[in-house]
Amino acid sequence: MTNIPRTHPRYESLKIREKLSKGFREGLVHETGLIAHGRGEAFDYLIGEQTIPIADIAAKTAAALLLKSQHPIISVNGNVVALTVDECIDLANSIPAEIEVNLFHRDIKRVRKLVDTLIEHGAEKVYGLNADMRIPGLEHDRGWCEKEGIYSADTVLVPLEDGDRCEALKAMNKKVITIDLNPLSRTAQMADITIVDNVTRAIKNIEKWIYRLRDEDSAALDEIVGSWDNKNMLGEVIDFISNRLEGMYYGST
Ligand code: PTJ
Questions:
Q1: Does 105 contact ligand 1 (Cβ within 6 A)?
Q2: 53-240 is a CATH 3.40.50.12640 domain
Q3: Are 86 and 121 in contact, with CB atoms under 8 Å apart?
Q4: How remote is the CA of residue 198 from the centroid of ligand 1, in Å?
């Protein structure tokens, strides 16, 4: 690992890159995961590498929905495990929810490595190795999932998702929460709740809200979820980025 001084202005961003490249060398991250990260990083730059206020409200709404759910699942891929293995386990324990490894570029060796990594870090049960069902309408291997896991879940948290799978999960009447730095992506547009934030901040933030909301009654949670308007929120993110760029270019008024 390169020794990056804490004083470096891009310290956090460079540390995230290091984690991902380590994950790639260890066989957790698919090679295209590095490219996908670059796209996310560009959007993170545009929002100022911070959790913007609307993303915090999205995380709160996601927490309310997860607490309301009967069978919530956190679906993880290579990038998510490489960047946030401990955060995902803590979040799963706090809800409680279960975890399933579900890959875009499915490869059983990588699934096994990811499951083993999650178990080594303390996850009790991880689905994904015994995929016995298919998500209807999804071609190729990324449609495989476990009957007791994603297949029977009522809510799926899918960070860094591809739009097709998000759409197919919704067609199965599941609620889909995603974390995607790109507010223009098809996933961001398709999900019930989109958290436009870096997965490295968002997972911890959802957990913060789980602890804050866990004693609320069902009606209060329903109200939080019911007042969410995902399309409107995406518009707010675009406005946030536009205003920020305008301020940077013309100077703030
Ligand atoms: O491990 P696998 O086989 O499941 O593959 C994972 C990748 C990420 C390669 C696969 O799911 C993929 O190709 O994803 P996409 O379609 O490129 O979408 C990734 C989305 O995540 C893009 O919209 C990026 O902007 C966004 N993104 C990338 N890094 C982050 C992110 N969003 C939040 N936090 C990040 N760190």
A1: yes
A2: yes
A3: yes
A4: 11
